[in-house]
From TrEMBL:
Name assigned to this protein: Resolvase/invertase-type recombinase catalytic domain-containing protein
Gene Ontology molecular function: DNA binding; DNA strand exchange activity
Residues in Resolvase/invertase-type recombinase catalytic domain copies: 17-168
Record-linked PROSITE patterns: RECOMBINASE_DNA_BIND (PS51737), RECOMBINASES_3 (PS51736)
A Pfam family matched in the record: Recombinase
Entries under PANTHER family matching the protein: DNA RECOMBINASE-RELATED, DNA-INVERTASE FROM LAMBDOID PROPHAGE
Transmembrane portions of the chain: none
Domain Recombinase intervals: 175-279
InterPro entries listed in its UniProt record: DNA_bind_recomb_sf (IPR038109), DNA_bind_recombinase_dom (IPR011109), Resolv_N (IPR006119), Resolvase-like_N_sf (IPR036162), SSR_resolvase (IPR050639)
SMART domains, per database record: Resolvase (SM00857)
Species of provenance: Paraburkholderia humisilvae
Length: 279
């Protein structure tokens, strides 16, 4: 790969726009790893030094807080790929390959489109022309290393989680009516209304002997049942609503109410782009 930037940035590239892609893997990194974010934004000056007017250096940063393991949920990356495919990009800038993609399929798709449209790719180490064999080979190796790094990081994380689970010390979301005590043990929810609703459900089931009859009784009496918002806006808030049949089944089959710790009863798998949960 030639290290002379002038040999790669041509007038044809400068007639098109520059696109700077900025990404952090989680919102926590966005707030805590501020230096990494600053370094990514600073690449705009690199584009200017190569000849692009600052007003034609477009920053794509709407994937901040998104994992790079897949392009499916990353609107910013998909927009970037579309701009490259349409021949609007003269150069794509990213601090490193892992910022652009942690998945070889997504990375090679970008490289292929950049090669077809004669779009340059720039990272902290230099400028690459995907149309040149040596540059394309190096970009492919960088992508493979980025994906391998993600695999190793996930393996370490999962290993730590499983070790905690084996000791019964892993804190996982508790079902309604149970909370974590400050010492780490599981205790009943201090909210008397929540405890009362849960006790009412179990008592009604003992009398009715079926989940369907339990739901019917709740609806006849106008009794409501609580649930907590697990994520997003209002996380932790308590919401009361009609009792559903599936909710009764989940509660009756949950071992935590019997004082048992369980982990790994379900797993996630992807099939034709759709996530499938199976036992």
């Amino acid at each position: 790969m030639s290290t002379n930037s002038a040999q790669k940035v041509t007038a044809e590239h400068l007639r098109r726009d520059a696109f700077l892609y900025v990404r952090q893997s989680s919102l926590r990194q966005v707030f805590e790893n501020t230096e990494s974010t600053k370094r990514q934004y600073a690449l705009r000056d690199r584009a200017v030094s190569l000849g692009w007017p600052i007003e034609r250096v477009h920053i794509v940063d709407n994937d901040l807080g998104m994992s790079g393991s897949s392009a499916q949920e990353r609107d910013g990356f998909q927009h970037l790929v579309a701009e490259v495919a349409n021949g609007h990009a003269g150069i794509v800038l990213g601090l490193e390959v892992s910022r652009l993609a942690r998945n070889n399929a997504d990375w090679h798709r970008l490289i292929e489109l950049a090669s077809l449209t004669r779009t340059l790719i720039l990272d902290e180490d230099g400028i690459y022309d995907p149309g040149q064999f040596n540059d394309r080979l190096l970009l492919g190796l960088k992508g493979a290393m980025s994906e391998a790094e993600l695999h190793i990081l996930k393996g370490r994380l999962q290993g730590g989680i499983k070790n905690k689970a084996r000791r019964g010390e892993l804190e996982v979301p508790l079902p309604i009516g149970l909370v974590y005590h400050p010492n780490g043990s599981v205790a009943l929810d201090p909210d008397q209304q929540v405890r009362g609703a849960l006790r009412l459900l179990f008592d009604t089931f003992r009398q009715a002997a079926s989940a369907t009859a339990t739901v019917k009784r709740f609806r006849q009496e106008g009794w409501l049942f609580p649930r907590r918002i697990r994520r997003g806006i209002g996380k932790g808030d308590l919401i009361w609503g009609p009792l559903e049949h599936c909710r009764v089944i989940q509660i009756l089959h949950n071992p935590r109410y019997a004082g048992a710790f369980v982990y790994g009863r379900t797993r996630g798998a992807y099939r034709q782009g759709t996530q499938i949960l199976g036992a």
